[in-house]
User: What shape does this take?
Amino acid sequence: MYTQAMDMPPPAGEALPKRHLSAVGSPDAAQLTALQAKFDAKIDADGRIEPQDWMPEAYRKTLVRQISQHAHSEIIGMQPEGNWISRAPSLKRKAILLAKVQDEAGHGLYLYSAGETLGTSREEMVQALHEGKAKYSSIFNYPTLTWADVGVIGWLVDGAAIMNQVPICRCSYGPYARAMIRVCKEESFHQRQGFESLMAMMKGTTAQREMVQDAVNRWWWPVLAMFGPPDANSPNSAQGMRWGIKRLSNDELRQRFVDATVPQAKVLGVTLPDPDLKWNDTRQAHDFGEIDWDEFWQVVGGNGPCNAERLATHKKAHAQGAWVREAAEAYAAKRAVDLKAA
Ligand SMILES: [Fe+2]
Ligand SMILES: [Fe+2]
Assistant: This one.
């Protein structure tokens, strides 16, 4: 599903990811200079860095942080919607929601795999999540109070995810870029199913229309915050752009999202809860109101409505799945012995 503020600074004391073993071994100063020059030239030529290539440690660390944060967001993002699978209003809606939530699990798995190519194991990434050292998108710390929330998450949250993730298809790190191509196709289905579900409700009763409007009112501002802090307050963005990890700034992405969403809201017949939202003819873009950044930082800092619940649910599911991991490892070990004997 989504990625926010992936260029946010790491928590204090975060360890460097495990160094990936490369064919280079331990290069001396002259070799390092040559390797750095080769890396820079590849970035400048808009080439792709692959797992076996030498890369600066800070580039590797930034990618591990971003990809693991993205993976955790996909997995934690299953919770607010999963909450509604057993209460979907029809068999059709249930089947769609099941497929969507399963897609998010798949996105998490591609991303953990992409992260592992950088030399950090999935187990280490999950442990960092459980210890509060790794973040996930703050949007998933808000509750899904009604069925309309499920539609609004598809329309707005997955819509914002697409805006964020399409540029990552051109990310300089090959495995991440390639994972995003398939992810974005699936996110497109997520966005459309959300919009279609809301459209059905808007054609229904007054109570249904009010439910949709209420959900839009609650989600609009947290969704705008998903793009991360304003550019002026986002010191890591410039480096991410230089490395070709980030292609568009937080504010550019947010503006594109607002401009794309306003006409959709009109088609749906809902009001976006911002009195300052209006078309600016000079800029050829929409002006919009100030985001409550205090709230954003509170939620990122662990004090959102559902932070504790989301992490506790993940830890419980992880513990309950221990036997599956143990069985898979035992089977793999047995197969290795059998293959050796064969
Ligand atoms: Fe996803
Ligand atoms: Fe999604």
